[in-house]
Amino acid sequence: MELNVVDLSRLQFAMTALYHFLFVPLTLGLSVLLAIMETVYVMTGRPIWRQMTKFWGTLFGINFVLGVATGIVMEFQFGMNWSYYSHYVGDIFGAPLAIEGLMAFFLEATFVGLFFFGWDRMTKVGHLVTTWAVALGSNLSALWILVANGWMQNPVGAAFNPQTMRMEVVDFFAVLTNPVAQAKFVHTVSAGYVTASIFVLGVSAWYLLKGRHADLAKRSMTVAASFGLASALSVVVLGDESGYLTTEHQKMKLAAIEAMWETEPAPAGFTLFGFPSESARETHYAVRIPWVLGLIATRSLTQQIPGIEELVAGAERNIASGIKAFDALQQIRSAGSSQAIPPAARQAFEADGHNLGYALLLKRYVDDPRQATPAQIKAAAWDTVPSVPTLFWSFRVMVGLGFFFIAFLALFFVLSARRRLDRYPLLLRLAVLAIPLPWLAAELGWVVAEVGRQPWNIEGVLPTVAGVSSLGATTVLATLVGFVAIYTVLFVIEMSLMLRAVRKGPEPDDAPEAELIPQAFAAAE
Amino acid sequence: MILHTLIDYDTLRVIWWLLLGVLLIGFAIMDGFDLGTAILLPFVAKTDLERRVVINAVGPVWEGNQVWLILGGGAIFAAWPPLYAVSFSGFYLAMFAILFALILRPVGFKYRSKRESASWRSGWDWALFVGGLVPALVMGVAVGNVLQGVRFHFDTDLRIFYDGSTLFELLNPYGLLCGLLSVAMLAMHGAGWLALKTDGAVAGRARAVGRIAAVATVALFALGGAWLWLAGMGYHIVGTIPADGPSNPLAKTVALAPGAWLANFSAHPWMLAGPALGVLGALGSLALLGSRSQGGAFLASSASIFGIISTVGLSMFPFILPSSVDLRSSLTVWDASSSHLTLFIMLVCAAIFVPIVLAYTAWVYRVLWGKVDARAIADDSSHAY
C-alpha cells in the first residue's frame, strides 16, 4: 500500500489523539474524586482522608503531566497537518478551543501546581478550593473541546462565505447549545468518572489482596464504587441519548454502526452479533433482536430508520445538488463585484449551497466536479459510507463494557455497603484485572465517533481529503515516526512510575488528629 | 445577532492585533522565565540539590504559564485562522521540534526526581535544558523568517502551498540571529526569576550568567535592527485596502519596499518607544542583576521582552506574515482575520476571562511567594520536584 499524505495525516492525528485520551479520562475523574476525598477531610477532620487525597494525588500528577504534554500536540496539529481545514472552519472551530484555554485550562493548570505545592501554605479550606478548581477546570476543558468536536459532527450555526472561501459563524449560540456537543460532553465526562472509579477500585483491591493499607483502600473503594456506579449509569443513559441524536444528525453513522444495509420496516431490529461484509453489502450470520433498534434510535414504533443503501442514494442526490452549488459559486466568484453576480447564480447558491461539501467529495476523482461522470458520482456517494465492520465491532465492545461496568460497580457498591469488601479475593482479583477495561471502552468510543464521521472532516461540509495540508508524505511520515518513538518511551516511563508509586503506597501521615470541629466551621460560628 | 456591529470590523481587527501581541508577550514573559530557567540549568547549578532548587523555582507555576502558549495557539486559530493555517503548516518541522521539546519539558519536571539514580536525573536535566532551549531558539528563528517573508502562496480556493520551506532553509543567518536573540532574552529573564526565587550560590551564578545574557540581548537586538536597515527588508501594500473588507488575502497588491519595516517608526515616532524599552529594559536588567535588587531585574527583563516583541509587531504593521514568493498572498491585519461576529464574541470572552485569569494567577503567585527552601527539598518534607 502506498501511503499518501492524507492517510498519514489521519494516522498521525488518530494516534496522537488516542494517545492523549489515555490520560484525559483519568484526569477528568480522578480530579473529582480527589475533590470529594478532600471535602470529606475538611468536613470530618480525619487525617486518613488527607492521606488518601495526597496518595491518589500523586498518581493523578504522574498521569496529568502526560495529558498536558500530549494536549499541546492536539492544539497545534490542526494548523500543522490540516491547514485547509483550519482555514475553512477556523472562524467557528477556533473559538471553542481558544475559550477552552482561557476559561478552563488556565484554571486547571494554574491551580494544579498549588495542589501539589500548597499543602503547607494555605488553610484547609484554601487548599480544598484549589482542588475543586482543578476538577472544575478539567471538566470545563472537556466541555469546550466537545463543543468543538460536536460541531465537526453536526455543523450548526455556520454558513459558507464565497468571498472568503470558508465557513463563517452566523449563530454562535447554536454552536454552544449544539445537542450533539451537549450529549457528547456528559457522555465523555461520565466515562472519565467511570475510568477513575475503576482505577481507584482496582488499585485498592490490590492493596487488600496484599493486606496493605486496608483502611485507605476500603475507604477509597467506597467512594469509587458509589461515584462510579452513578457515573456508569449515566454513561449508558447519556450514550443512549447520543444514539438518539445520531439518528437525527448522522444517519449514516448509525446505519454503519448497525450494519443496516437496507431500510427495514419500523421498528427496526437490533443486530446483536454478525459479520458485516462491505463487499457483499450484507451482514452474515446476523443474530437479531426485533424492535430494539427502532425503539432506541427513534423512540417510536412507527418511524423508519434509513439503511445504508437508501442513504447512499440520498448522498447521490446531494452530490447532484452540490455540483449546482459549485457551479453557482464559480459564477459568483468570477463576477467580481456583488452587483455583477447573475441573479440565477445567487438563487442557485441559496438553494443548493448547503450541499457544496458533497461536490468536494468528487475532488478525489476529478478536478472540476462539474465534469464528473455518473460512475464517479456513484463512487463518491458510496464513499460516504464509513468502515462498517470497524464501527459495528467497536460499538458492540464499547456498549458491552458499559453494561459490565454497571454490574461490576453495583456489586462493589453492595459489598461496600455491607462492609464485605475484603471477603472475596476472587472479586478483588477481578477488580485488578478490570483496570484497563474503561480505557479500552473510551478509545473505542472515539473510534466510533471519528471513524463514523468519515469521509468527512466536517460532516457534510468538508471532506477529509480536502482538509489536509499540502505537505510531503515523507515529512509527515518522519513526524509520525518521531511521535510514535517519543510516545512509546514516555508510555513505558509513565507505567513504570505509576507502578512504583502504587507499590510504594501512601506516605505515612503523622500529623496530629485534627480538631473534631474543623477550623473553617468553628470560625463561621 | 446585531450586537457585534457596535464595534466596527476594522477596529476589532486592530484590537485583535493588539491582543495577539498581548498573548505573545504574555507567553514570552510568563512561560519565558520557565524556558530561560531551563536554559540556565546546566550553568547555574552544580550539585543535585542545586539543580532541584532551580527546578523547584519554576516547579509550581510552569503548568499555568504554559497555558499562555496553548491559549496563544487557540486565539490565533480563532481570531486569525489564515495565520494559524499558514504558519503552523509552513513551519511544519520547526513546529514539530517545538512540540518535541515541549513534550520533554513537563515530563522532565515531574519525573526527574522520582528516582534516585544519577543517570536518570542527569538524563532528565538534559531533557529540561533541551525543552527550554529549543522552543526559545526555534520561535526566534521563526520571527526572523517572518520578517524576511516566508515562501508560501494561496491558490484561488485559498489552499496553501509552500515553495520548499524546509527546516534548513529557516536556519538562514538572519533567522539564526533572531533565534539567538530570543535565547539570550529569555536566559536574561530566567536569571531575573532565579535572582528572585533562590539565594546563595545558585542566585550568584544566575546573576553572573544573566548579566552576560543581558549584554548579548542588547547587542543582538541592535545588530538585528541594523541588519534590517542595511538589508532593506520590508513590504508595502500598493494602493488602498478596505480595512473592513472580507478576509481574502488575494484581493490586494503588495510590493517589495526596501526599508519599509522601518517606515512605521519614521511616520509614527512614538513607536520608537518599543525598541527603546527593549534596550533600556535589558540595560536595567544588567544593572539590577549586579545590585542587591530582588525583583527589579525580573521587572526590567519583562519590560525588555515587551519592548523587543512590540518592535517586531510595530515595524511590520499592518503585515502579519508576508509571503516572499507571491507577494499578494501576504497576510495583513485587514485580510487575515476571522469574521466580524467571531472577533466580537472572542473579544467579549477575553474581556470577561482575562481579568479573572490574571486575578487568580496573582493569588497563586502570592501564596507561593518567597525563596525556594533548599532544606525542605533536601529532607523531602515538601512536595518538591
From TrEMBL, chain A:
An annotated GO BP: aerobic electron transport chain
Per its UniProt record, what InterPro entries does this chain match? Cyt-d_ubiquinol_oxidase_su_1
Q: Which UniProt keywords apply?
A: Cell inner membrane, Cell membrane, Electron transport, Heme, Iron, Membrane, Metal-binding, Transmembrane, Transmembrane helix, Transport
Question: Sorted alphabetically, which Pfam families does this protein's record hold?
Answer: Cyt_bd_oxida_I
Is the Cell membrane keyword given for this protein?
yes
Instruction: Give the record's GO CC terms.
Output: cytochrome complex; plasma membrane
Under Gene Ontology molecular function, one entry of this record is: metal ion binding
Residue ranges crossing the lipid bilayer per the database entry: 20-43, 55-73, 93-117, 129-147, 185-209, 221-239, 393-415, 427-449, 469-493
Top-rank taxon, per record:
Bacteria
Subcellular location field: Cell inner membrane
**Keyword Coiled coil tagged:** no
List the membrane topology term(s): Multi-pass membrane protein
For this chain, the family text in UniProt reads:
Belongs to the cytochrome ubiquinol oxidase subunit 1 family.
Q: What is this protein called?
A: Cytochrome bd-I ubiquinol oxidase subunit CydA
Q: Which organism is it from?
A: Xanthobacter tagetidis
Automatic annotation (TrEMBL), chain B:
Which residues span the membrane? 15-41, 83-105, 126-154, 174-196, 208-230, 270-290, 297-321, 341-365
Q: How does it sit in the membrane?
A: Multi-pass membrane protein
Instruction: Quote the subcellular location field of this record.
Output: Cell membrane
GO cellular component terms given for this protein: cytochrome complex; plasma membrane
Gene Ontology molecular-function annotations: electron transfer activity; metal ion binding; oxidoreductase activity, acting on diphenols and related substances as donors, oxygen as acceptor
Q: Mind telling me which InterPro entries this protein's record contains?
A: Cyt-d_oxidase_su2
Against PANTHER family, the record matches this protein to: CYTOCHROME BD-I UBIQUINOL OXIDASE SUBUNIT 2, CYTOCHROME BD2 SUBUNIT II
Question: Per the similarity annotation, which family is this?
Answer: Belongs to the cytochrome ubiquinol oxidase subunit 2 family.
* Listed name of the protein: Cytochrome d ubiquinol oxidase subunit II
In its UniProt entry, the species of origin is given as: Xanthobacter tagetidis
**Encoding gene per record:** cydB
